[in-house]
Amino acid sequence: MRVSGGILIRASCLASLMLTGACLDISEEDLGRDSHQADPTGQPVESSSEPLLTTPLGEYAQGPGGHLIHRSCLHEVPNGASFDDKDQVTASGLRIKDIPPCSYPEGATAARAVSPAVNGWVVASIATPVNGWNYSQITEIAGTWTVPAKPARSGAVIFMFNALQDNTSTVIMQPVLQYGNNGRFGGNKWVLASWYGGPMFEGNYFHSSPIDVSPGEVIEGLVHVTVTGNIDCDASGVCDGWTIRGTVNGDTSRRSTIFATSSQPMSMAVAGALELYNVTNCNQLPSGSGGVTTFSDVRVYQPWGNPGNPSNWDRFQRTTFNGDCATTSAPCWNRAVWSQAPNCSFGVSVAASSARLTY
Fold this sequence. Notes:
Elements: E1 2-3, E2 7-8, H1 11-20, E3 60-62, E4 68-70, E5 74-77, E6 81-83, E7 88-91, E8 94-98, H2 109-112, E9 118-127, E10 140-146, E11 157-165, E12 172-179, E13 190-197, E14 205-208, E15 211-213, E16 218-225, E17 242-248, E18 251-260, E19 268-279, E20 292-303, E21 316-318, E22 334-337, E23 347-351, E24 354-358
Parallel strand pairs: 5-14, 6-18
Antiparallel strand pairs: 1-2, 3-4, 6-7, 7-8, 9-19, 9-22, 10-16, 10-20, 11-12, 11-19, 12-13, 13-14, 13-15, 16-17, 17-18, 20-21, 20-24, 23-24
């Protein structure tokens, strides 16, 4: 099974995670990580199963979650636009675009990246509903973090985000803070955009129009079931509408929002994650080596009652976390750290409503 962004957990660790909610200090070995041979999500693959690219890598863009996406399959949609699994984009109530299926395979991130370098997820705080939770479905995650200082040295692509994901890792919804040029947008500045896409959209990926942000500004990342009158979710947790939003300094005029459908229930919460590409020196990290980013006021919600009763989808209840799975019982947060070179003191500590990422 993959955990957020396609990371692979071996069976022994997965069993512990699903039964107890704890798979502590998940390591590179536990997650099957191989930074030299990876599919677009960072999962190890046999060489015969990796897509053969006949298109120059310069035509690809690096997306969060390890996705190397052909630029014709990566679509910027207006702030507040919606899209569905028929690849129809709607804005202000009007259908503005029909997206054809993507004609290009996803590329292997390792093929594009500088080697040796840090490439992929490096630290994260992750929770999966197991014994001790109310139900297996998650309807919302929210949290805030501060835009770090710019790195002392450019050249890397940096993603920071919170997210919801399904249990098959085919769907991840994420408002993303980005530094560096991903091949489609960005540069030596911080930008905020909301992302979603993948197989259910025939290989297409979507992001909202990027918003420039500055060090010291506060980002609120929010992913939740869209509430427009009656909430349309079935007993399994499949909901017709989702909102993916990043807001700067609580200013509603500085929001990066997309609305989308999903054919999968959300059953994994990411309180905070750091994902890096082409980092060859620790001074390419935010604030240089020894930096800290804390995701605060982390909130997770679930259905009010038994999801089999439609009326219980009309309102949600907050799940109270006990803290770190290393020291307490579920509901709790797992700490995931992936070994990388160069070693930039990557780490994560968690509490009931926060995740502190160090680098």
